[in-house]
Amino acid sequence: MPILVTGATGTVGSSLVRQLVAAGHEVRAVTRDPGSRAAAALPARAEVVAGDFGRPETLVPALRGIDRMHLVAIGESLTTGRRILDLAEEAGVRRVVHLGHNDPGRDDDDPIESDHRALHKAIENSGLEWTHIFPGEFMANTREWVASIRTESVVRAPFGDWTSAMVHEADIAAVAMAALLDEGHAGKTYVPTGPEPVRRRDAVRMIGDAIGREVRFIELTPEEAREHWKDRYPEQVIEWFLEMGRYLDGNAWVSPTVEEVTGRPGRTFAQWATDHATDFR
Ligand SMILES: NC(=O)c1ccc[n+]([C@@H]2O[C@H](COP(=O)([O-])OP(=O)(O)OC[C@H]3O[C@@H](n4cnc5c(N)ncnc54)[C@H](OP(=O)(O)O)[C@@H]3O)[C@@H](O)[C@H]2O)c1
């Protein structure tokens, strides 16, 4: 029976598809656009099917003959998730592994937070076996620096001493894979992080080491950061980034999840930078 992976062209989903296929499992990969480059980059042995969270009925063919699925909380699935879960149950799905996010520090009034929390409840109240995966900050977020590293060998960002135990997408996917395949994960909430806290300025240096040339870190003041990000992120998100930056070790906690669930230590940021060096060259 194939395993259904939604968000299959995404950062974590594509790694999950690759790891499942490499381990010999049948995978059905959902994307809104099976003709996209990202879909074409999935392993040839994965079955790529169309489906759109915004129109949950489009997922019915994808759910046929499936008993376990990976559900990513993103965009429309935050609001249509309950309907998707109903359709999954009707189709015979028994287990859902949910990749999402939980930030107890954020306000219930924040509309995105409250959508996430509503989805958590819908999953927990469904008749499915569920596992939540709420990772720490992704190492892959540093891809935001690709353009300036490629063209100028610099990174401009605030808070060079901001410290975060960022996590490799392959480790998040490995945790999801264990929860999909093995017993003992039902009803659990996993918070995978990387194996060590890394300062932002050190992450920049490690990318430089991986690509074989020096990359300079230029620290922005909060005011300069607002200007720098203004065309890229909504104002509310920028203010949230800046607020987080005031607590320099706010994300530094290292969770034992990756090692406990997968049996091997999490990948380091230096490893991530090597894995993605071609993106930054
Ligand atoms: N970034 C972080 O630091 C961080 C930290 C903690 C938690 N998280 C959580 O991680 C999750 C995101 O994971 P990710 O970064 O791997 O995702 P991602 O790279 O942004 O990819 C998400 C995938 O979802 C698919 N998708 C989007 N809208 C869709 C729709 N309407 N219908 C069907 N598919 C749709 C897209 O596939 P197609 O375009 O092919 O349709 C896309 O490939 C979120 O729940 C986020 O809250 C992120």
UniProtKB/TrEMBL annotation:
PANTHER family for the chain: PRESTALK A DIFFERENTIATION PROTEIN A, PTHR43162
Q: Per the UniProt record, which residue ranges are transmembrane? A: none
NmrA-like domain location: 3-252
Q: What is this protein called?
A: NAD(P)H-binding protein
Q: Which SUPFAM superfamilies match?
A: NAD(P)-binding Rossmann-fold domains (SSF51735)
